[in-house]
Each structure stands twice: as structure tokens, then as C-alpha cells.
Amino acid sequence: MKALRLKKIGLGQYNWGKLGLELLVVFLGVSSGFLLNNWRERQLEQEFEQKYIAGFIEDVNNNIDQLEGLTASDSVWLKQAKINVTAINDNSLTLDSAEAMVKKIVAINRMEPHEGTYEDMTNSGNLSIIKNFELKSKIVDYQIALKEVRFVDDYFYKYFNDFVMPFVISNFNVLSGHFEDENAYKNLEFTNAFVGYFSMVQQRQMVYKDLLVKSKYLSESLQKSKD
Q1: Using one digit for the tens of pLDDT, what is the confidence trace for 63-89?
Q2: Which residues lie across from 173 on neighbouring strands?
Q3: Which of 49, 178, 184, 193 is disulfide-compatible with 171, CB 3.0–4.6 A?
Q4: Domain ranges in the chain?
Q5: What is d(CA 213, CA 209) in angstroms, rounded to the nearest whole number?
């Protein structure tokens, strides 16, 4: 009776075993395609992650090279300048020393950080591609330290342009390397300009050294993540 009913409604002609097998094949095909697509996406994300990590390593190591050079030169300058600050305070600064100070002051420099990888990641919204949360936090902290360095450098340059250069332009012959008025270095304007410059180099030295420590720490963490 049951077979008769199936025949009447047109179902008895189907091979249910074969149909079930076909459905299983379709299911497995869709599932495997979905899994393969997910695998490809994960592989692509891993490739991007490694690409960004390699980029970060290059940027940070370039910054380390800069910072090591700048902190070394600033240390030498500060050591020499401290003697002149003491001489200014004791009213014993000589004309030759004052002129040598000005020549070194006008040769101002600053850090030019390499951060193209971070900018590329943030602009494209790919910062989340770094899966290691601790490493991602270190990268963000490092960028905050870079901003602090940039702030100090910008402030330093503003001080240089607003106070140091006006004095130099008005009183110092850059071509000959001498003061137009040999007593110009004895006035308060020179004292304030130079001591202020000295203080700014000290502040810059502090943030440079702090960034150098963080740079080396981040470089090690990035290298471990790459390996």
C-alpha cells in the first residue's frame, strides 16, 4: 500500500540512495570550498602580517641608527656646552668660546622618524591584522613615544626660530664666523638664547634616549614574532 502511494505521487521512481549521495557530495563540495576560502584568507592575512612586521623592523632599525647618532652627538655637545654655561654664570666666557658656541648652535639637527609602515596600516585600517595583542600594544606605545619626540623637536625648532636665530642674524656674521660687536655675547639676550637652547637639548636628549630604549625593545619583539 505504501509503495502504491509513493508511486501515485511520483516519488517511487527516485533512487533515494543515489540522491542522498549526490546531496552529500554537494554538501561536501560547498563545505570544502568554504573551508578552502577561509584558509586562503588566513594565509593572505598571515602574509600581510609578516609583510607589516618586516616593514616595522626596517622602520624601527632605521630609527635606532638615527637615535644612536643623535644621542651620541648631543652628549658630546652638552658636555662641552656645560663648561660654557658655567663660564657664562661666572662671567668668564671668552669671545672665542662664544663664537664657537654660535657656530655649533646654528648647525641644528633633528630626528626624521621612519614610520611609513604604521601610517600605511592605520590609513588602510589594517592595524588589527597584527594578531599578537602584546606586540600590537608595544607598537602603539612606540608610536606615542614617537609623537612625544616630534612634539619636543617641533618646540625646539620653534624656540630656535623665535629666539636663537633672531639674535644670530642681528649680531653674528655667519660668513666670517665672528660677532659684529665683540661685546654682543656679554648681553642678556645672548645668555638667555644660549641657556634656553642648552635646556632644550637636554630635554631632547631625554626623550631621544627613552625612544631609543623602546625602539630596541620593540625591534627585539618584532624579530621574535617574525622568527
Answers
A1: 999 999 999 999 999 999 999 999 999
A2: 178
A3: 184
A4: 13-226
A5: 6
List the chain pLDDT tens, one digit each, 227 residues: 445 454 554 555 555 566 566 666 665 566 655 555 554 656 566 777 788 888 889 999 999 999 999 999 999 999 999 999 999 999 999 999 999 999 988 888 899 998 888 888 787 767 677 778 888 888 888 999 999 999 999 999 999 999 999 999 999 998 899 999 999 999 999 999 999 999 999 999 999 999 999 999 999 998 888 76
Q: CA–CA distance from 159 to each of 28, 189, 199 (Å)?
A: 70, 14, 11
End-to-end distance of the chain based on CA atoms, in angstroms?
71
CA distances in angstroms from 32 to 29, 41, 52, listed in the order given: 5, 14, 30
Rounded-to-integer distance, Cα 63 and Cα 207, Å: 13
- List, in sequence order, every residue forming a beta bridge with 9; answer none if it has no partner: none
Model pTM score: 0.77
CB 130, CB 52: distance < 8 Å: yes
| CA separation for the pair 173, 199 (Å, rounded) | 25
- Helix, coil or strand: residue 10: coil
Would you state the cell numbers that stand for residue 19, as one nine-digit string?
540522491
All three cell numbers of 97, joined, read: 668660546
